[in-house]
Amino acid sequence: MGKSKIALITGITGQDGSYLTEFLINKGYVVHGIIRRSSSFNTGRIDHLYTNPEILNTKLFLHYGDVTDTSNLNRLLEKTHPDEIYNLAAQSHVKVSFEVPEYTAEVDAIGTLRFLDAIRETGLKTKFYQASTSELFGKVQSIPQNENTPFYPRSPYGVAKIYGYWIVVNYREAYNLFACNGILFNHESPRRGETFVTRKITRAVAKIVCGYQKNIKLGNLNAKRDWGYAPEYCEGMWMMLQQNYPEDYVLATGETHTVREFVDLAFKGLGVELEWQGEKEREKGVVKNIDDSLLLEGLINVKPLYKELVLKYIKKNNVVVEVDKNYYRPTEVDLLIGDASKAYNNLGWKPKTKFEELVNIMTLADFEKVIKRGY
Ligand code: NAP
Ligand code: G4F
Q1: Which of 179, 215, 220, 265 has the fewest CB atoms within 10 Å of its CB?
Q2: Sign of CA dihedral 87, 88, 94, 99
Q3: Is residue 348 classed as helix, strand or coil in its secondary structure?
Q4: Whether residue 54 lies in the annotated active site
């Protein structure tokens, strides 16, 4: 058996980090992950891996670190000698970046530079993946967006990530590093952070249906996103680093949907049809109908329990969605829709999970959690 490849992942405790780790371990890699010290546990998404004695300290090693600490990154590179580095660490919340713009730049922009420079300094022969984003397109200059679409970021997050993008391109050209930008459109899963809109919706819908929450307050319901399924995007990251030449790639589904459509489908999966009334800040999602024939297939087993819960807590005409201006952003990205044909042609990458299936996967997972844990 050949020597295992070594990967170093920043942001291993995040949504993508956890799926990528599973993927690489299954491929036979030894994975080193950088975790931050936190006052409460932040390893929930990878607990199933590192509590497994067959994996911890043989296939998976965790190190304290932070992309704001140059000497830490240098030490970790020298200690782990990775064949591949996946730089997923980021202050990744767009709305929060308006509150902490300097910190966002420190982590998302300069953090990327620190890593690239550490590679250059150590002279390590390694491949580098940078978590770039469709937020670079921001106020979109053409539809759909691909690798040639001009950027126009609309948040401190987008601006910080644009630095990350260009410093990767620059180090690739200046120092011949094997470094790629994955320009990934939104990708979601049951492991998505709870403050991103998709997961906020599926958690809330599950709780509303079970009587733990009365309604959900959301911001811009008209925003359109190209939403895909996170595990498939993590495989795409790896594919980029297996090519002969480093290039930048868009990963996207090529479909776009509004936040409102996401809400509609999540409720529908739990047997609740909504009607939208009013406009702008006064818009509301009201229960129009409750119909257990709409229930997701995976929920058939809990049908009796579901009937009991829903019939008890949800009634026709209940207001279950409200708009709250506090969730509006100073500048919004109205529409994203990606064209991933380069990834398809060069990497053979293609998204499999369609929008409705994605909403159902997330709704089902949150409903099961709420039923089991009661919150
Ligand atoms: P996420 O769930 O928010 O995870 C972010 C990760 O970065 C967490 O592990 C976090 O650690 C870590 N981190 C934050 N600041 C750090 C620092 N200073 N030093 C070291 N680690 C730090 O994000 P995600 O959805 O998995 O996304 C992964 C990457 O892809 C991010 O760079 C994001 O900007 C980018 N991206 C995401 C999407 C998407 O739709 N998901 C699309 C395009 C690009 P803690 O757990 O300790 O907070
Ligand atoms: O779920 P979001 O917060 O994701 P956003 O801003 O698109 O950013 C995500 O995707 C990017 C890729 O394009 C990543 F780079 C980034 O790291 C992150 O993963 O918001 C999606 C849309 C926005 O238009 C927002 O205004 O949903 C709208 N929205 C409406 N109500 C809301 C809410 N967003 C959040 N987070 N919370 C709300 O209550």
Answers
A1: 215
A2: negative
A3: coil
A4: no
Residue type at 284?
K
Q: Atom of ligand 2 at shortest distance to CA of 329?
A: 26
For the Cβ of 98 lying below 6 angstroms from any atom of ligand 2, the answer is no
103, 66 in Cβ contact below 8 A? Answer: no
Cis status, amide bond into 144, omega within 30 of 0: yes
Place of tokens 């993927």: 23
Integer angstrom CA distances of residue 25 from 151, 191, 243, 352: 35, 18, 20, 22
186 pLDDT higher than 70: yes
Reported as a single tens digit per residue, the pLDDT across 199-251 is: 999 999 999 998 999 999 999 999 999 999 999 999 999 999 999 999 999 99
Ligand 2 atom showing the smallest separation from residue 134 Cα: 13
Q: Is the CB of 236 under 6 A from ligand 1?
A: no
Q: Which of 179, 175, 65 is nearest to 111 (CA)?
A: 65
Q: 234 — phi, psi (to 5°)? A: -70, -35
Q: How far is the CA of 95 from the centre of ligand 2 (A)?
A: 8
Cα 89 to ligand 1 centroid, rounded to whole Å: 4
Q: Which two tokens stand for residue 141?
A: 């200059």
Nearest CA to ligand 1 atom 30: 131
* Cβ of 33 below 6 Å from ligand 1: no
